[in-house]
## 1
Amino acid sequence: MGTDIAAIFAAHRWSVHVVEPAENRWTAARRRISRSLAQIGSRGRPGEVALHATLAEVPWRGVGIVIECAPEKLALKQRLFAELERLAPVRAPLASNSSSFPISAIARGLKTRSRMLGLHFFMPAHLVPAVEVVRGRATDSAVAARCAALMQRLGKVPVNVKKDLPGFLANRLQHALMREALAMVERGLATPKDVDNAVRYGFGLRYLGAGPVMQRDLSGLDVHCAAAATMYPNLASNTRPGRTLRRLVARGKLGMKTGEGFYKWTPQSAKKTLARYERALLDALALLKRHKGG
């Protein structure tokens, strides 16, 4: 995520400083940034990207914004932001790319909590346009507005999230869908592949043209209300991850990275699927650019 976010800024001629303590990963990081820049199709010469082993090496005087992409460990993020608050220029927003922790929890104890917010990108960050701009309880609305405007200048689509709830906005929607998807698989209603096909080739395709709320206006709120009255009582309402998901995780079947999850993966099938996935995203991105608005 960090390298792809770096590519977004570099593509718009920003000078970027990436902090990666493991210097043996620098070659791979530079390779990833170059690849992402090529996929974005940046115009002109991109901005320079420098890698540093420590925060102390960054030339902080010229830094305009900080985006943290550390592992999802709350204590680690809190320590990082305590140091960032001390190092970064006072007007520089301090943003976290966390996908789950409340921004207010990460900012706890900071003296300048007003400039702390979430900028949550979606993988792969350089291809998916949306970025959630998440306000914590103490976030200055003017800082959030500045960051949203910056994301727009970088060619992204800012999604303003005004309340600091776990999962923010998009992940809450995704988890609601996934809860129902896994419940249907566990009930024997469909296979994982059938669920995926229903989304990819069914209603998911329509979401490129209109989001779920606008879709209801297009189809008629009376139709939706009647269908909801029938279905809502029968939808999954479990308050913990589904049984199948928990069993797979307990057995170490974590998906593509371990060779098996809901699907079985070989190095060849993983490479082929990831290539198809990125091609589909690039095609979808081109389509969205042709049909802006709404």
Note: Residues 152 and 243 are 41 Å apart (CA to CA).
## 2
Amino acid sequence: MAMGLPGMDELHNHLKTSVPGACNGDSGLLAEWAGCSVLISNHGLEGGLARTTVSSALLNLIVGETAAFVESRDVELRRRLNPRSLLEFPFARLLRHLVNSMPPGERIIDVITSNYDHVVEYACDMIAVPCCTGFEGACVQPFRDDALSSSLYTRVVTSGKRRDPRHEYRKVDMVRILKPHGSLWWQKIDDFAFQCPDRIPGASRILITPGLSKYFISLTDPVMNQVRELANTSLAGARSVMVIGYGFNDDHLQTVLLKRISSGMRCLVLARALTENAASIVSQHSGVLAIEHDDCGCRWHMGGDSGLWEYGLWDLACFVDLVIGREEG
């Protein structure tokens, strides 16, 4: 949201005005959406859609309107990015610091996001670090089953005479982007999944919206299923995790995460305001440090204690400035 991408509330407001028009006068779809809208108003977008089974016709409209809205803002972000400066892109600065801090034997940083946009991909480009989403190619990129589990290598000359140099292969720094809810450019025709910035005629989006349908889609769609399993594997093997702006309200994503936190894995949470679920998790697990907004700067919570800091560390830009430094990108 700090980069101009819409949050759940803004998306809900957009859907309230766009979906009825997309129904094209279909009384059945309009009535179904009216019922959904009431649930969403009472329980939020995620909670409302999780309380009803949406027809495939209405689901397609919601997916289409959601993708179009997020994509318009994603394009706006891409157009205003300054590729020669990271000062206005705190996530890119954080990512660069994490990549530079990796031990020699570990060259992959995993980023798990439920967002459809390309904020993480833009950050990788700006710090000149390769990223992998599972799709490889030039303009129309097919999904490769082994891409997400592969490492990148470079050949370097280590020693030896001029005519007989010795070479070795070393792993290249890489960010693996795992999107268990799909992405704006992900599409498929029948069983052929690919990534392309342009909408291909006859292709459907590979994208999960909030609601009950995401459980079925994530298990039956081969791309979604592999990404979800790899995200769980990443969390299961992680020694620590940083959570940015996630409210712990999605059982579809957090089962393994909560198990690891319960087992003592360290977790840092940055949020504008902790949700009820997030606050409960923080209070129950001593290894979680959570930082949220306060009029005095920020409030921290850990191990049953809390306090105030004068700096707004809940905000990623402030966090990066104070913890990493404000060097020019």
Note: Residues 245 and 286 are 20 Å apart (CA to CA).
